Amino acid sequence: MRVAIIGVKGYPIVYGGFDTFVRELAERLVKRGVDVTIYCHSALFKEKPRRVNGIDLVYMPAIESKSLSQITHSFFSFIHASAGKSDLLLVVNSANGPFGILPKVAGKPTVINVDGLEWERPKWKGFGAKYFYWASKMATRFYDQLVNDAEAMREVYLELFNRDSEVIAYGSTPEYSQRPEMIEQWGLKKDDYYVIVGRLIPDNNSDLIIEGFLKSHSQRKLVIVGDVTYKDEYASRIKKMSETEERLVFTGFVKDRQTLAELFLNSYCYFHGHEYGGTNPTILQALGSGCAILALGTVFNKEVLQDGRYGILFEKQQQAVTELVNRVEAEPETVTDLKSKAREGLGQRYDWEHITDRYIEVFENLLKSKGKT
């Protein structure tokens, strides 16, 4: 079986959830005997090896601008892949929905992982929101098989677009502390801080969590891990708060994987304010790190945490955050209990090997239905 993958920045670099997903899946597919080709954004690679870890790499150009870079890279990749030798295309990101017409015309079977509610995210306004909604709708028309990573997202696509999808969750791997001293660079000690991990965008509600935390009685610190790569009023306001509040520690981006892992592993509690999307990779990393998770009560977070079995859910209110912090400060036994069972929350569903099995099953069924086997 030959599978071409489109929609990420490339391999083996990792910038976000889709890049991690493709890396984890592609490497495992190769071990199962699948020929994998990944389309890479040429401008991001100084060196351009044609094959890495058994994965074939194709470097495609783009019109390099903030608004056109990713979409033009995808367009050129689709043209190349539609005429290529792969048996099927695996596409990520619903923004690529309209491009599904190209492999469809070429008679190439397609699978798309559509991800989350991009059109509802505050960062997309006006045309951006309308485009994502339209693109997601086009994905339901042009692609042979849709994949969602959460049951709640499957229901959204059924309701809005009347199209069913396979549900295959995102994955994670249990982690354990190896170098706890790595957090000392910020003056941190084990269990002496809460942590937020994510981009500083309104979608993740860092401001709500920070403001609620500062009104609590906690003497612990709140560590904010993340940033944005552009000048932004929202992010600047949060960073400015960390300059004047002793309990706030702003780390910026933490690119070293082990350092980031230690920030999860040694926290008292992890705050998850992500509001949109399906299965969020960060909450799964928190589970795999044995964190006591305090999460915004969205349908997606409820699904991952099994309605509160593996974390505490809170409402989108500053007072709710304040009360929750005061509660876990007064109930350390609750935190200990959450930590002791967090990793079991991953189960089979979020295991990368199981996820690989499911994708292979989807690929084989699609090829069989198309008479390609």
Structural class: alpha/beta
CATH architecture of the largest domain: 3-Layer(aba) Sandwich
Q: What overall form do the CA principal axes indicate?
A: globular
Contiguous low-pLDDT stretches (5 residues minimum) are none
What is the averaged pLDDT score?
94
GO molecular function: glycosyltransferase activity
Protein name: Glycosyl transferase
Domain Glycosyl transferase family: 179-344
Domain DUF1972: 3-172
Describe this structure in words.
It holds the Pfam family DUF1972. By secondary structure, the chain is of the alpha/beta class. It has two domains: 2-170 and 351-369, 3-Layer(aba) Sandwich (Rossmann fold); 180-345, 3-Layer(aba) Sandwich (Rossmann fold), CATH 3.40.50.2000. 39% of the residues lie in helices and 16% in strands. The strands form two sheets. It has an eight-stranded mixed sheet with strand order 3-4-2-1-5-6-7-8, with helices on both faces. Strands 11-10-9-12-13-14 form a six-stranded parallel sheet, with helices on both faces. β5, α3 and β6 form a beta-alpha-beta unit.
